[in-house]
Design brief:
The complex is a heterodimer of chains A (about 290) and B (about 325).
Chain A (H helix, E strand, L loop, with lengths): L1 H42 L6 H4 L13 H32 L5 H13 L4 H15 L6 H25 L3 H9 L4 H12 L1 H16 L3 H6 L4 E2 L13 H10 L3 H32 L4
Helix pairs in contact in A: 1-12, 3-6, 3-9, 3-11, 5-6, 6-9, 7-8, 9-12, 11-12
Chain B lengths: L1 H8 L1 H21 L6 E7 L4 H14 L3 E5 L4 H8 L6 E4 L5 H9 L7 E13 L7 E3 H8 L8 H4 L10 E4 L4 H11 L10 E3 L2 H9 L5 E5 H6 L4 E3 L1 E3 L4 E2 L3 H5 L7 E8 L1 H4 L2 H12 L1 H7 L7 H20 L1
Parallel strand pairs in B: 1-2, 1-3, 5-10, 6-7, 6-8
Antiparallel strand pairs in B: 3-12, 4-8, 4-9, 4-12, 10-11
Helix pairs in contact in B: 3-14, 13-15
Classes of the chains: A mainly alpha (about 290), B alpha/beta (about 325).
Chain lengths: ~290, ~325
Amino acid sequence: MQNQLAGRGTLLRDRVFMWLLFISLAIGVLTLAILLIYVTVKGWPRLDLRLFTNMPSVRDAQNAGAQSAITGTIWVISFTALIALPTGVLAALHLEEFARPDSRFQRFIEINIQNLAAVPSIVYGILGLAVFARALALGQSVITASLTLALLVLPVIIISTREALRAVPRNIRDGSLALGATEWQTAYRQTLPAAIPGIATGTILALSRAIGEAAPLLLLGAVSFITFNPDGVLSGYTTLPIQIFNWTKESREEFQVLAAATIVVLLLLLLAMNFVAIWIRNRTQKRW
Amino acid sequence: MAQHRRRLLLSTPVLAAVLVLSACGGGNNADSESGASGSVRVDGSSTVYPLSAIAAEDFQIANPGVQVTVGNSGTGGGFEKFCRGETDANNASRPIKDSEAESCAANGIDYGQLVVAIDALTVVVNKDNDFASCLTTDQLAAIWGPGSTISNWNQVDPSFPDEPMPLFGPGTDSGTFDYFTDVINGEEGSSRTDFTPSEDDNVVVQGVAGSKGGLGYFGYTYFEENSDKLKALEIDSGAGCVAPSEATARDGSYTPLSRPLFVYPSVQALADPTVAAFFQYYVDNDAEIAKGALYIPLSDADQAKLVTDFEALLAQTGTQ
């Protein structure tokens, strides 16, 4: 039946198109798989509890761990989330629900946010160094890193939150307003809760980007050798990508293995964050 | 409506979990605090980094309450932070430059120069290279000079075979590059640019090990680590061929490619007893630290000079 309607040429083109799609998918999946297998095999001898319980060591490569980098990453990313999430969601809520949609000012802000999302991360590092580390005298600390990474992910959070808010049907808002709720009540109690699945996914993907950043942190003074966990927002710190970067520069083979094992930990952390995003989406998803 | 409010709250457990986790991180640290406390910030050269990292590691085992961090922003990047008072000491693989000294002076940072170990730059070739065993500094300058067109061993010396010569070296940001270009080409930073540069010395190792005619240079540490894959060339600076080794680097006969490695502590920072205690430890255990970092320990005379230099620095803090 299909044959008769479409003719031979269309069918061939269909097949070629399907193969193109499949090859495109395979390139992405294969690259990831090869990377995963490579680092897991290479890091396997050191993928054990010592990685979590021990501190880095130059002397004792056999027993060195990445505890300070793991806790440093958790500290930095927690404060990044604490700063970026409320700011980003509220900014998006304002742009989407309250601001006049076609004013010149509004369009100016919109173009700016979209451009900011494409700015290379090292530029945020330079900004963070000048403003947070030096002008505000926060130095080479956890909070400097968190503020800078928060700026880095803010545009992504704003854009994804706006998309999520836009996906909430107009009727929900109209219904709420018709029942006498104020605009603020409508936004806070109806629109925002309904948009949580999209906001959560967008936010966690943005934070996943921040967790893998090394360039801006190198500039901000994340240190290479640190054998204590952060004990406050003004503490020195290092993060997993920096620790990995430093170990791969070492000449001794033990450190290369250690770096591979630490990459696996970083990937697991990313996987866990993506899992949380999926879990929140499934818990809160609603169909109209 | 109540249902919606519950949904909004669902995002809070995630943040809460993250915060609890991070609080654990802080907790571990508080347990170990005892005796001396305070912090020491060292940054600078990645060549000197292993020395200071080992000093930091050992010192913190003896003094668990102290927090020592070591960065590796490079000699120049480190001095920029040091002269702003952002770090307590700077690792350097070359003496401080005049421009850096001015910047320190402008910010009221006084400092002293300590020689903590000796590094020997090693010129390496492939293990299978059986024709070259010694190069003169003039030949090295001809190979590495700016605008050099040498791409084959027979251009260096007609007695060498027709063998392509791919070149590998450290990136232009490294102190090793500054040092090599200064002593070989006569001007810091003056070098041909068509070689394969890398901040990662492993890349140089792999490059030279992977091509029969390959030639590269880096610190003696890296050569010792990879002596099964590479061959070190002897260097002739006019007084005959000298092979790089602990003895020749220390007594200065492996010239001009052996060099001292420096740490510059700030006098202002040394007024803090924690910082002073850390550097006292560094100076007292310097030979042990240098061996641990696979550098060449100081000779007895240089070690004695290190001790007196440091005492003089400490004395300066008293007069502040």
